[in-house]
Task: structure prediction
Amino acid sequence: MENTINPLKSVASAIFLGCVILSIAILMHGGIIKLGKPATSTTPAVTPTAVGQPQQPKTEIQIVEGLKGLASNLGLDTNKFNSCLDSAEKSSLVKADLDDGTKAGVNGTPAFFINGRLISGAVPFEQFKSVIDEELNGNAPSTTQRVTVGNGDLPVQGNQSAKVTLIEFSDYQCPFCGRHFTQTEGQLKKEYIDTGKVKFYYRDFPLSQIHPGAQKAAEAARCAGDQSKYWEYHDLVFTNQQNIF
Result:
């Protein structure tokens, strides 16, 4: 009698055998049973961290310590500088600038006067260039309004006999003042101040209601000025504005 194979049984056996092989393969590649030495995970554990937490504002003590640190960086006599800053002996000079700016119509910072012509805000260099060139060429519009503003008591930058006077009322903690220093002041110095076309005066206008460290920064720069480092300290404060305040 000829032996025959039942096709259904063959198919069932094949399916069963395939399932067994597939199960073993799954277990060997990431399932419960693993052959050989277990692999060591190289993925570090993730520790939850706070995201978007606002930076705490610095206290006046921290700001003053930062200002004193800048004096040390400049190689100033720190004992003399610290005594000057702690005594607030420059506060009346800062107030005089603030009062003059208010009388001249300054109500925010930065504010600039180019031969008495007011420019408000951290405007692009091109806007300064337009006004300065008009003053240099003597072709300002006849309707141009001018305000009489004193130069203040701080040292001048540039040629004192320059035809154009640029006066800035500013706040060391003001971010827009910092932006002007970073983006525009350097170009003004290069093209106009260092070439003897413009003389530049800085005057303090601390907005203490919203910038609690601005007053002490203004006093600190003046204390540095007592050691002939006013402009160096001025630049250093703006360069380190984010760290100090």
